[in-house]
Structure formats: structure tokens, C-alpha cells
Amino acid sequence: MTNPADSSGTTYDLVILGGGSGGYAAALRAATLGKSVALVEKDKVGGTCLHRGCIPTKALLHAAEVADSARDGEQFGVRTTLEGVDMGGVNKYKDGVVDRLFKGLQGQLKARGITVIEGEGRLTSPTTVEVGGTTYTGRNVILASGSHSRSLPGLEIDGQHVIASEHALTLDRVPESAVVLGGGVIGVEFASAWTSFGTKVTIVEALPRLVPAEDADCSKTLERAFRKRKIAFKTGTPFESVKVVDNGVQVTVAGGEVIEAEVLLVAVGRGPNTAGLGFEEVGVALDRGFVTVDATLQTSVPGVYAVGDIVPGLQLAHRGFQQGIFVAEHLAGLAPTPIDEAGIPRVTYSEPEVASVGLTEEQARAKYGEVEILNYNLGGNGKSQILKTAGFVKLVRAKDGAVVGLHMVGSRVGELIGEAQLIYNWEAYPADVAPLVHAHPTQNEALGEAHLALAGKPLHFHD
Amino acid sequence: MTNPADSSGTTYDLVILGGGSGGYAAALRAATLGKSVALVEKDKVGGTCLHRGCIPTKALLHAAEVADSARDGEQFGVRTTLEGVDMGGVNKYKDGVVDRLFKGLQGQLKARGITVIEGEGRLTSPTTVEVGGTTYTGRNVILASGSHSRSLPGLEIDGQHVIASEHALTLDRVPESAVVLGGGVIGVEFASAWTSFGTKVTIVEALPRLVPAEDADCSKTLERAFRKRKIAFKTGTPFESVKVVDNGVQVTVAGGEVIEAEVLLVAVGRGPNTAGLGFEEVGVALDRGFVTVDATLQTSVPGVYAVGDIVPGLQLAHRGFQQGIFVAEHLAGLAPTPIDEAGIPRVTYSEPEVASVGLTEEQARAKYGEVEILNYNLGGNGKSQILKTAGFVKLVRAKDGAVVGLHMVGSRVGELIGEAQLIYNWEAYPADVAPLVHAHPTQNEALGEAHLALAGKPLHFHD
Amino acid sequence: EPVAVGNGSVHVLAKPPVRKLAKDLGIDLGAVAPTGPGGVITRADVEGHVAAPAAPAYE
Ligand SMILES: Cc1cc2nc3c(=O)[nH]c(=O)nc-3n(C[C@H](O)[C@H](O)[C@H](O)COP(=O)(O)OP(=O)(O)OC[C@H]3O[C@@H](n4cnc5c(N)ncnc54)[C@H](O)[C@@H]3O)c2cc1C
Ligand SMILES: Cc1cc2nc3c(=O)[nH]c(=O)nc-3n(C[C@H](O)[C@H](O)[C@H](O)COP(=O)(O)OP(=O)(O)OC[C@H]3O[C@@H](n4cnc5c(N)ncnc54)[C@H](O)[C@@H]3O)c2cc1C
């Protein structure tokens, strides 16, 4: 799809380096606004999220749910059996979902007249990106080169025994046992899926709790659920070393304990793809490898913007979408409202799920001093009882003010984050939500009940 | 728990006739507001919803989901089998959920100091209810006697072959075949659950479409899904007669066709429990059996209020809750905002689910003249693809105005109604929702995408 | 109208719950002076308007 004429004249409104969540969202929005766009992608449009991230992991987690459901059928009076997991079949299903969405995305890019340039791009000036000897000029450039799986110093990922998430997603078997290094979102999601498939999992996390970026109550409840699921985890336990042996790995953690397993999954975070792409040469300021930006996502080089995982902050696909859309609208002169990073919803799709938006209790105390907290236990929520899930909804409110944090743990609570997101971002008061009695029996009813309780009007309230 | 002293003096702030959703919500809220409350219940507090309605049906539907999941496991690469459904086990699970919530409710009533009076009550004056010879006096009385399964003229429910929902909920077996008379919410939910359990189901509906109270697009999509699930339905087909035979029933429908089945479930609506309870004698005006009320839910008799299924309108538990809370607050002088009936969310928990709030397209056209419609197909929604569900999100907007109707069909979309409810009731514009990019990959993202598209900013938009 | 259309872009004058609050209180948002960023009417603006209504229509 390379347009050979580009070196010899065409100037695009926008040249975007990287066709992942951030890059393609910017491209789609800019095209809708009538801009001409060149989108440079060396691999496949859709990027990490579509091909090696959000979508395949969630397909895996849904297959895991199917397995759990069959294993636990008797609890519901249904005689089901789980005979096994056919990873070939899971991968086929997973790839089918990815392919369908990939085709849809390609169709969208085409339909909106976006020029997709295949190849590895390099920033060569504030207005040019070079791809395979051809220079593409844009009135503006957006950097959206994304991120890659990081490791720890001295810990080499061999893709066989010591693997990263991209390898874990293409395994042709269910490992018998696994050590997951890192108790953040990605680590916890794989630990959950593998456990459902029958793997014996141990999570090793250096920080004192699982999902350490979440409210401490979320960590506590997730840890309780994982304990019940027999997922072993060692928090506050730094990794020391790994030895690859014949049948797997021997992982040594702080204190000297050695854990044997078939594979070690390294899920210690993702580093920005910003080295060797010409950024520094053109003067784009970096901070520990990340591209620093102002409130409009402009880099230190006027006219050059950055979106997605290369920008410090939450590494989430929909943050990339939002940033991409923001820059496209900003460049079109629409003056979009700056993005409140805390207003971006966060979901961990493990069993149980963890979902949050806004500030944790700790952050809210730091910001507002006095806060009010309301914990609504899902034990009082009919639908959650029907699903046999435990968990809670926690609301954090600035004293006499708006709801500034919503935190949830439980099966399927990730879907409640849409409502929570409106409450946080629209700065609603408990009294705004309280009169809107929620549909019975749903899980979102728990959000309603929590707001009723926080507004001083508890209905089905249980401590 | 009867207080024998009541005839001889105690005056309650509130006497409530009926301890179902409407009655107990009023009781709980009034008690929180410091009122003394007597709650009269002849059977079990919790009423239809808890014991014979919402909760047991949703437990059944979840067992159905477990069965479907095991039946379809191969699609996800998981080797599962469904060996059968053990109705004894399903009933035990279902009863376990009901019992737990029943205990919770009893605990709440007790904790808030509400006097529960066991027995059949009768309104004897605008301020008194008589129960087994004892008269209970309230400064105000709330009527909340609920509803019962209706039938058609000449169609006798024998509880064996010709059954109503309460019988269907205690069946000790999965019927081999069933005719479901009525394609409304209750009929469609049983048709869905039984089909998942292996019953051969035929729905007979006199009106031209299933879930006829919903937007026509919802009916169409649900019908398509039911066709795929091999659920037979005959719409626009009035029932004529039924003959009970040895092994079941022979149902004759308009046109003369005879359908044989093991059982006939009559789900043609619910009638108000208002006869023989003294209402008319005290002067409470009725309209076709329902209690007519003003905007504050006061009946034609000053000081006597009515809530729940006896009040014309949606027969939903959370409407009962909301009305109960409203009356309690109104009587406490809190001047609550009158309830917008259209703002009450509606969920049909079949597979797929149907969920809506606000006006249908037809209603919106009648009210606003010009409207804008946006249909977002779940084919473009990653999480829905992962769940392998089809469906859509439909938005109805007053021309250049607020979103006045949200309609959805698809597995699990019932949980998205919480967000939809805020959008409708807070009169949000598409442009209010659009900048709040939703969590990826979730189903609630489809709501976000639909608002983006309606605001003229489509992201992952597919027709 | 709580949402004004101009310059091809939609400018929201108040967040939905605040608009709803104003409506429930019977306040015309057009009569409320905005103090929020970008000319957005805040909850405090609405509440302040209730406490100290602008010059009465009659004099
Ligand atoms: C296992 C896993 C699970 C995840 N799950 C979720 C989830 O459920 N929800 C969520 O919100 N987020 C999730 N994420 C995070 C999400 O994938 C990222 O936040 C998102 O992909 C970031 O988008 P991006 O556009 O910044 O970068 P990427 O998606 O990484 O896209 C960058 C693109 O740029 C291309 N590129 C890089 N350099 C060049 C170059 N020089 N020339 C041309 N092209 C180049 C790459 O090939 C790539 O396609 C997950 C991530 C992982 C790894
Ligand atoms: C199969 C089925 C499924 C349903 N599913 C849902 C759902 O998923 N979601 C939803 O929102 N709604 C659902 N409903 C509707 C819901 O159950 C009703 O809307 C709700 O129960 C109405 O509450 P109520 O308080 O008006 O009446 P009820 O719940 O019927 O309660 C009335 C109470 O009054 C008592 N009573 C009556 N007369 C007297 C008397 N004379 N003296 C003393 N006590 C008396 C009764 O024993 C009863 O306990 C369902 C209904 C059915 C039948």
C-alpha cells in the first residue's frame, strides 16, 4: 500500500508512526475530520492490543470461564464435566476473534481513506517519517510506537521456558505449572486463566500486594479469592534468579526459596518503544525512555505529538484511543477537553475481576483530606449470589462532595465500570444516583445500593 | 410477631399491607427516617419477587447459562460436556439463593425495628388494617398487595399440565416439551431457560412480536436469536383452547393448528391483588382492578397510598422499591422528585438478554416528532465477539437533543442498563458521553461507541 | 438548552447531573453564571443561584 509518490511531493495533514490503539484511533478520528493521514506500521495495524494484548488475553480468559463453569456445574444443579482444554482449539477460537476484528479495522481504515504504509518508520525531522528509503511528510506527526514486554536485569526471556505475555499467548499446551513474575494486571490475568485450565500457578510479586496500583481493599479481596482458588502467591518477595533445567525452570526468590515450574512468565511491566527511532535526534525529550508531553499531548518538539504507551501513565488501549482522538481533534481546532487520567477506567479481567475509576482511598485522602468511604458487600446483591461470586463495591467520596473513586471486585464487575465512569467523570453526588433505583436483580444494582447507602438511604444494605 | 396490644392503642406512623418489593422498601426507608412501621404479610416477606419471581427465575436462567456453556464448550476450545440437568440440584441451588436473601431481608427488617405482622390483612378504614381480628392503626396506610398470575377466560390453571410461573419454578423435572402462552418477559425467560435445559419449546403470542412492549428492533433481534436457538414461536397467533390428555396437553391456536406438549405454561400477564381486601369499601378507586394514584402515589382516599404491581404501569420489583422509597420520603416531608416511569430500566434475562430504558423509537417519534437513531451492531464490539453473542445497542435521540431511549440485545447486556439509566435520567447528550472513552475490551464499550457515533465521532463503528 | 451548538463543535455548559439538579430545582441554566473551566456551570453555581437568585423579574 506504499504510495511511491510520497517522497516526491505529497504532504499529509498527519503522519502517524505506529498503527496500534493510539495511532489508529488518531488516524480514524482525523480522517473523519477531513484530514489526509498516513499511518506507518511495521507489523499489523491493531498493534499490541489487538494481536498480542487485550483481545487474545480476554479470549483466553473467556475460555477459562467456560472451563470453570463446566468444572463447577454441580453447584448449580447442572451435570457438566470438564474433560480438558484443547489449546489448539482455544488458539483457533482466539485467533478467529482477532482476525475478525483485524479485518474490521482494516476495512475502517480503508473506508476512511487512510493511507497505511507498511514498514519500519523513523522520525527524521519534526515533519517527516522515513520508511524504507521513502520520506513521508506531515504537517503534523504523531508518535505512537507503543511498548514491549520488559524484563529484569539479568533475566533473559528465551521464549521457551522463560516467556513473556506474547509467548504465553501462543503456547500449544497448558503448562502443568507456572511461576508468574509480577502480580500486576497482566500477571494476574494469566495466573487466573491458567489456573482455570489446570495449571498450578505461583505468583511472585516484589510489592506487598497483588494489583498494587489498585485500592488496597481490592488487593485484599482479590488475594482472598485467589487463595480460595488455590492460586499461590508470594507478595513482598523480590525475584532473585532463574535456572533453566531440562523439564522447566527453577526460580529462586528473595529469602532463598526455590520454586520449580514448567515455565516462568515474566510480567514485570512494559517499556516504551522509543529507542532507535530517531526521536532523540529530532529533539523529542524523553524521560526514562517515555516521551514527555504537555496537556495537549505535544512533545517537546512543536508539531510532534505522542499518544499511547510511550506517554507516561496508564498503559491501556482505551487511554490510547482517547489520546489519539484528543490529538486529532486538537489538531483540527476543536479544543477538546483535556483528559483526566484518573477518569480512565481500569479493569483486570481475572476471576474475580477488579474494576476501578477515579482515586483510591489513599489518593483521595491525600487530595481531599477528609473523605467518606462506603463498602457494599456483594453478599447483599442478589445477582452476585446467583453467580456465587464474592466481592464488593467501594465508593470514595470527598467529604460532602462528589464521588471521586469507585472500586469493585467480583465476577463480571468489569462491565459495571461504564456506569462508574460516568459517575466519576460527571462528578456526580451520591444523591444524584440514589433516586435512580437500579434494575433488579442485576449486579449494577450493587452500585445503586452503594450510592443509596452513601446518600444515607440504605435499601438492601448489608455490612 | 403479632403485637397483641395494637388494637388497644398503638398507632404506627405507617401500616403497610403487603411485604413484597414495594411494601418492604417503603418499610425500610420509613424506618430509616425514624418512623414506626407495621408491615402486614400473609406469606413471606420478600413477596413475589424474592420467592416466586425475580430471584428464582434468574437462578434458573443462570443454571441455563451453565448448561449452554458446557454444551458449547468446543467452540472455545474447551472440552466440556453437558450430561444433563438435575432439577433437584437446580432447585436446591435456587432455594439456597432465595433463603440467603430472605434471611438478609428479615434481618434488615428486624434491625430497623419494623413490626412484621403475620397474617392476612384487610383495609377497614383510611387508617386501619385488620389482621385476624386485631386492628392496626397507622397515621398513613400503604397498599402493597402485589399481583398474581392471570389466565385467559376459560383457561384453567391446574398446576400440573396447565401451569403458571409459580408452578414452573417448582417443577421436579425438565419437561420434554412445553407450550409457553405469552411472549412477554416471563414467557420468554422460561422459554429460554427450558430450551437451555433441553425442552422443546413453542411460544404462542397473540401480538405480532415477542417482547411486544420493547422497541420493535429488540423484538426482531430476539426473534432472530430464538430462531437460531430453535425456539419455535408463533406470533400474531391467539390461543384458542387446551385439552389435557394423558401425557400432557393439546393446545389449539387460532387457525386450528394443534400443538402437543408435556406442559402449557400460561404467562399472559399478572393481575393486581385488590379484590376482597376492603379497598373498595373504604373508597379506594380502582380502574380495571388496579389502584389509581396521583403523582405522589396517593390513592383516591387521602392518606392512603399504593405502590408496586397494584399501581398501573410496569410490573417490576425495582419500580416497587422506588415507589416504596418515594412514598416513605414523601410522607416524611422530603419532597422527593416524582418518578419518571420511562426512566425505570427494563431487563429481560433471556439468552440473549434484552435491556432498555427511556422511550422506544415509536414513542420518541410520537413525543418529539423528529428523532435521530443510531444502531451499533455488537459485531464491532470485541468483548461481544469473545462471548460469541450477536445483538446491538440502539440509541434514540430527540433531534439535536438528549438521548431519550437506549435499547440493547445480546448476552449479558442487562448489566449495561445501569449506565444507560444514568444517561437517560440525567438527560445526557451524546456529546457528554462521547469523550469518556470506555474500557477496552468490554461490552459497555458498545454504549460508548454508540454515543461516539451519534455525536458524529465514530471510532470502531460498523453498520 | 443546556447544550449550545456553535462553530461546528458542541459545547456542553454543565455536566449531566448538574443539569438534572438545575431542572429538579426549576432553575433555567441560562440564568446561571458559570465559574467552571471553559464556561461550564458547576454544581456550586447552581446551588449559589438558589441561595442568592439573580435580580428578581419584578422590581
Ligand atoms: C498481554 C497484554 C494484555 C493487555 N490487556 C489489555 C486490556 O485488556 N485492556 C487494555 O486497555 N489494555 C490492555 N493491554 C495494553 C494495551 O495493549 C496497550 O495499552 C495498547 O496496545 C497501547 O497502544 P499503543 O498504540 O500505544 O501501542 P501498541 O498497541 O503497542 O502499538 C504500537 C504499534 O506501533 C508499531 N511500531 C512500533 N515501532 C514502529 C516503527 N518504528 N515503525 C512502524 N511501526 C512501528 C508496532 O508494530 C505496533 O503495531 C494489554 C497489553 C498486554 C501486553
Ligand atoms: C416469574 C416472575 C419473574 C419476575 N422477574 C422479575 C425480574 O427479574 N425483575 C423485576 O424487576 N421484576 C420481576 N418480576 C416482577 C416482580 O416480582 C414484581 O413486580 C414485584 O414482586 C411486585 O412487588 P409488589 O410489592 O407490588 O408485590 P408482591 O411482590 O407480589 O408482594 C405482595 C405481597 O403482599 C402479600 N399480600 C397480598 N395480599 C395480602 C393481604 N391481604 N394481607 C397480607 N399480605 C398480603 C403477598 O403475600 C406478597 O408477599 C417477576 C415476576 C414474576 C412472576
From TrEMBL, chains A, B:
It comes from the Bacteria. InterPro entries: Class-I_Pyr_Nuc-Dis_Oxidored, FAD/NAD-bd_sf, FAD/NAD-binding_dom, FAD/NAD-linked_Rdtase_dimer_sf, Lipoamide_DH, Pyr_nuc-diS_OxRdtase, Pyr_nucl-diS_OxRdtase_dimer, Pyr_OxRdtase_I_AS. The keyword Oxidoreductase applies. One of its GO terms (molecular function) is flavin adenine dinucleotide binding. Gene3D superfamilies: 3.30.390.30, FAD/NAD(P)-binding domain (3.50.50.60). It is an enzyme of class 1 (oxidoreductase). Its EC number is 1.8.1.4. Residues 12-324 form the FAD/NAD(P)-binding domain. Keywords: Cytoplasm, Disulfide bond, FAD, Flavoprotein, NAD, Nucleotide-binding, Oxidoreductase, Redox-active center. The active site is at 440 (proton acceptor). It catalyses: N(6)-[(R)-dihydrolipoyl]-L-lysyl-[protein] + NAD(+) = N(6)-[(R)-lipoyl]-L-lysyl-[protein] + NADH + H(+). Disulfide bonds join 49-54. It holds the Pfam family Pyr_redox_2. GO terms for cellular component: cytoplasm. Binds 1 FAD per subunit. Its cofactor is FAD. PANTHER family: DIHYDROLIPOYL DEHYDROGENASE, DISULFIDE OXIDOREDUCTASE. This is Dihydrolipoyl dehydrogenase.
